[in-house]
Amino acid sequence: MQREVWPRGAGVRLRALSRSGVFYGELDDDRYLSVFTTAARQRAARFRVSGDIDAMAVSDDGARVATVRGGGALVREAETGRVLWRGAELPCGSRSASGELVVDERFIALASDNQALVLSSDEIPRGLPYHSRGATRRWVLIELHRSEPPREFLCRCLGATSVTPTCAVISADGRWIPLPMADASVRLWDRARGQLHEPAPTRRDARALQRLDGDRWRWLDPALGRFIPTPRYPDAIYQRSPVAIAASLGCPVLAWQRPDVLEVGGIPGPDYTEVDCSVARPDAMAIDHAGEHVALASRGVVELVHLPRRERSRVPGVRARALAFAPGGLLYAREDDHTIRVLGPG
Questions:
Q1: Residue at 68 is within a domain
Q2: CATH of the domain at 15
Q3: Which residues on adjacent β-strands are paired with residue 177?
Q4: Which of 98, 203, 310, 334 is most buried, taking the most CB atoms under 10 A from its CB?
């Protein structure tokens, strides 16, 4: 299953996989950012950055590089390093209740047409009792060639005492942005129409959800169509919330992982099917270009699910923080020490 290992070389500070699995970025101690092809490991572009960066993401075609540093974001042309767009005060990354911030390519996504940037973030507030702690999740959509301000999507998930990374995801055609919502459903933002699509149907959606009513959060029961008293144990309501989500870059297929089931189907739906698959708090998730394999990384193991046959296999000893399938079916895993491992499709 494991084919190659690319250790982090001397002087390498950061690595990041492109969502397409065709390129990866590398930042060295001299602040040179290089874009390499994964197939031949050849340098495709190189430029120097001014100052440090916390994270980066390479576009699907390797032509753009997005970097994040201290709440600011830049999009550069990979060939020259020229800055094409810049923004400030943009949330990005995952902050735990202890205050630790993790930022990497999972929270940054460039659309396939390089016309849009999506940043995601989540945070658990400190000093709250166990049952009322909740992760505040945000997605920021920036249309890079329009003058309109960034569009922010917000949801608050009570009952989450540890955060599974809220990854930035865009569909293969760049039109749809899947958003796992606080009510345990998945909705799609339509960039073409500028509106939320109807929730993806599922048999396992929670009934109660939160809505911002004026200046305070209240509980709404969609079945009753009215607000209800706050549940005594809100944790139970969100036990079926999506914990990871991914979209194929070769076909219009979307999948998300709930605590005990994997749901997969076409974009924008409406039909989705369930696969029996339980993965505890995945750190990363990816779908291959054919829409047949799903990979999930959790606790030092990569789980591979072959969707047509409903078969599963495991690759132990891989502490992946990012996953990407190449068009030929190879799976690339970027570990927390920035080692890249090349894995087979199944």
A1: yes
A2: 2.130.10.10
A3: 189
A4: 334
Count how many domains the chain has. 1
Which tokens hold the place of 168? 């930035």
Q: Is residue 223 part of a domain?
A: no
Question: Within a 10 A sphere around the Cβ of 16, how many other Cβ atoms?
Answer: 28
Q: Is 131 helix (H, G, I), strand (E, B) or coil?
A: helix
Residue 57 to residue 211: CA distance in whole angstroms: 33
Question: Considering the domain boundaries, does residue 245 fall inside one?
Answer: yes
Torsion angle of the four alpha carbons 73, 177, 254, 304, in this order, in degrees rounded to the nearest 10: 20
- What residues contact residue 138 under an 8 Å CB cut-off, 6+ apart? 91, 120, 121, 122, 152, 153, 154, 166
Other C-beta atoms closer than 10 Å to the C-beta of 323 total 27
- Cα distances from 164 to residues 40, 136, 170, 187, in angstroms, run 33, 12, 18, 18
147-181: pLDDT as tens digits: 888 998 876 654 444 445 678 999 999 999 988 77
Separation of alpha carbons 62 and 53, rounded Å: 19
This prediction has a pTM of 0.85
Could you list the residue range(s) of the whole structural domain that residue 56 is in? Answer: 2-205+240-343
